[in-house]
Each structure stands twice: as structure tokens, then as C-alpha cells.
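Researcher: Watch the backbone:
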Amino acid sequence: MRNTKQFIDDLSRLALVDNRDAGKDGAPPFVSAFVSRNRETFVELAMPAAGLVIVIEGRKELYWGGSRYLYYPGEAFVLPAGCCASVVNEPDQTSGFYRALFIRFPRELIIEAARLWPQLAKRPLVTIPSVKIDFTLCSAIIHCGEVLSRALSSSRRVVDHRVLEVLLLLAEQGALPLASKYFDGSVSDKIRLLVRSRPAFRWNAVAIAAELTMSQATLHRRLRQEGKALITVLREERMMIAREILTEGKADIAEAIAAAGYVSRSHFARSFRKAFGSAPSDFRSSQVIDR
């Protein structure tokens, strides 16, 4: 079985030279190598398509949904299409290089994956962007990276098969949501991504409709078709963000309130208790004790 070092060594040959801008007609390549000798910061980076990021060398900081995540060599994560996150790429102190791979998943293959495995298309939206790298996924990523980067000469069918294999493994982990109508998508999921991208913003029907380029009437109609109400979607996602912040143990309740977009402490406490059955202070205390 490959260990972390072997996994990194296998992938490093795909990340020798920075090629993030090497796509045709301005479009990014399916496999991008991010290589830099300087610290890079990207604020509110929009994800037009879902993708898998694998850190090869150095460290990546990810800021999403009011939380900070750190990724080191051999670790990976997925961000779904439509999310907006901030990242910091930190070169390794010894080598002086930062290297990472980004595998962009074509929309048509996500649709095809949902058709092939409909039971996985009903999984909930990703809230914690992390991926468990095991032997099977490790091998699939390497094979996928080789054909997508044209390191191997392969037919389109082989390329699609390799990508679908990775999509299946990620979907089974719950790390990547599949959608049978990827272009339309779920309006409630799009709203969740908006809230998670800017949790402290006071989202309402006017702002959300403008972001999704639809009228307020269409927004509410689409939500009714999904069996959702706007106020419910907003409250649920804000509570999830608050719980994740309190789970970290280091943040205080005031930070959770601000990140969740609340002003009133009592209003926040009532909503939190209704969602999770305990007060924010009790929840945070239990997390600290567990640590």
C-alpha cells in the first residue's frame, strides 16, 4: 500500500511546472499545477466548476464559511461549484516551493455520474471540505491525473472513465455532491453556498435573487418546488456555520454569532437551541472538555 510519501512522489511529476494559465481559449486545463516560490493569497476566489485540490509541497490555508482549514502535503479537499473561498499558498520552508494539483471536474461528467449512481445524487451539500486519501482513491487520482494532463495518450472514453472513477469515490465519501441537473442545480444549495461564502452578510430575498440572476418570485417558486422556504434555508445554514465554529473550541460565542450573521445574542441562542437541542455555551463547553 502506498504511504503518504509515495503518494506525493507519484503526483509530484505532474506538478513540476506551473501551468494554471495553460488552458485553451483562456479556459483552465482539467489538471492545473500550481507552483510558486512566493506566498500567494487569493481573496474570495469563485469556483465556476467543482474540483479536487491535492497539496504536494508547502501548506495551503483555506477560509470558507467562517472557518480556517490547513492542508499539508498528501492531503486533499473538494470545493463544489459555486462556492467562494479565500486561500493562502505557503511555500515549504526547506525547499522554498509551494506545489499543488487541481483537478477540475467537467460538468457533463458530474451529470453522468449522477445518472449512473442516482443513490449518491441525494447526498447533502458539502459543509467540511476534506477528503480521506486511501489506497483506492490514491490510485484513481494518479491515473486520472496522468490521462488528463496528457502524460499518457488515451482516448476520450478512457479519460471519462478515469474521471468518473474519482467522482464515484469522492461521492461515496460525501465529499462531492452529484446533481442530475447540474446546470440548473438546487436553488437551496446555491443559497447555502452564498451564505457560506459570506456568512456575516445580511442575506435576504432581494440580495439572493440578484446574486442568482432571477426575480424574487422565481426564487420563491423554485424553493417551493424543492419543498423549502427561504427563511428556513438561511437559518439552517447559519446554524451549521455557528456549530462548526464552536466545534473548533478556540472561537468564542461572539465569533459564532457574528459569523452566523446574527446581531442579537438571545435570538442566536434560541435558534441554536432549536436546531441542536442545547445552548451555545453548553455545546462549546462540551467541545472544550472533549479536547
User: Anything to note?
Assistant: Residues 187-290 form a domain with the Arc Repressor Mutant, subunit A fold (CATH 1.10.10.60). The first helix runs from residue 4 to 12. The longest strand covers residues 40-46.
